[in-house]
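Re: beginner question about structure tokens

> Can someone show what the tokenized structure looks like for a real chain? I only ever see the sequence side.

Sure, here's an example I had lying around. Input first:
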Amino acid sequence: MITVQDLTLQFGKRILFDEANIFFAPGNCYGVIGANGAGKSTFLKIITGQKDANKGNVSIEPGKRMAVLSQDHFAYDEERVIDTVMMGHKPLWDLMKEKDAIYAKPDFSEEDGLKAAELEAEFAELNGWNAEPEAAALLSGIGIIEADHERLMKDLNGNQKVRVLLAQALFGDPDILILDEPTNDLDLETVTWLEDFLLDFKNTVIVVSHDRHFLDTVCTHTVDIDFAKIHLYTGNYSFWYQSSQLALKQKLAANKKAEEKRKELQAFIDRFSANASKSRQATARRKMLEKLNVEEIRPSSRKYPGIIFAQEREVGDQILNVKSMSYEMDGQTLFSGVDFTINKGDKIALLSKDSLATTAFYKILAGELSPSEGSFEFGQTITKAYLPTENERYFETEPKSLMDWLRQFSSNKDEQYIRGFLGKMLFSGEEVHKMSNVLSGGEKVRCMISRMMLASGNVLLIDEPTNHLDLESITAFNNSLINFPGIVIFTSHDHAFTQTVANRIIEIGPAGMVDRLSTYDDYVNDDRIKESRAALYQVPA
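And the corresponding structure tokens:
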């Protein structure tokens, strides 16, 4: 359906990809991965014709329609929401406009009648009579209530606009669907809806995402941009990650015999193929993995940060007691009646439909805000380490080198000691002298993680840690919390992150809280507590 031939893109001396050749077949979902700056989004722009390559070409099977998730959240501000969705099928939308213009003519002629009849036939062929009901069903499925369908786009908030633009891309059953970070700003229910939609989608999907659970659920293939090459692998992200790590381990064990390596890789493929039976795409994925040749598995050049949280001392019996705590902001109750005690071994996912509620809760525990009602008390053995979701204030002072910026948070001022923590977060060599006022969003988060590791806390307070991080950093952070022996309270929209770390769920809202010893998946799928969860947000006027 899409053929990429000898594709080369170079900026100055830097080569993003060199003579890439790849074929995207119908019925498959391709997850495009690569380190930050590898060229994932640029690759999608070349496929969609928004950007030209230095060499090579992209050809699409004649007659096939491509839909692209729009990144411009203001392009349709003057349009109705329902119309914005239908604009996703441009041939149909143009036909509708032409048809309406003819019928609106004051001097409607016989010639106009013939043209209108011709357009009506084309309209019916494109299933035009069902266009508006289908657009409405998409909007409802993606969380836009019926009352908002007739509103103008400019009257929606940012999260709602993202959902409408996603519905626009999905509308009209396109032959090729291009999605760049489609899960950004979507809640769990909407992401699950999108996963189900794509699992039932019979055409070609090419997607870039940092959400590992999403990639694992929907993708049949992984497109890896690495070594200035683009390689296609059968299987989802977890299969690519685990197989590349195994291949790297084997590469480092240079004296291992070739046949032993082959057997180890084949055993891995067999295990993963068997596990595919648990997925919603079980049969197709298992068959593809069974055909995979071990020679296709290669080590990755990715560098994973060394995120290691070492607690200075173990927690005692008294860790944290929260009593009847509430918080209001600008007259609005963000949460109330929060009451719990933390026990040894707890790794708590703190949830709320309103991110302002969870952020306020962390700021209270960190001593940056005071509760409107209630109280909290940490035990005497507790040392906190806090990673806020908003970190600008930590970088607004006079610009410093990264070395000096991190040194201000450490009692040990030794250069090698400080350099070690920066090195763990992949700031090496001369990069430690980079100035703090020129950092990207991802670099700032990596600096904040270095600061957090320095604290050696036994209670970690972590508010949306995966924002601005690449897949490698997210994976390293995820593994570090799994292995951390102390207490963790965290909030994340990354499904895999939350599922693999949390053993207790606390959800807070304006009308109270729900507290369960549970994994994330068990919690959100438990029908017995759905009413209790819904009641958290039903506040009397």
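Each token stands for a local structural state, so reading them left to right follows the chain. The chain has 19 helices and 18 strands.
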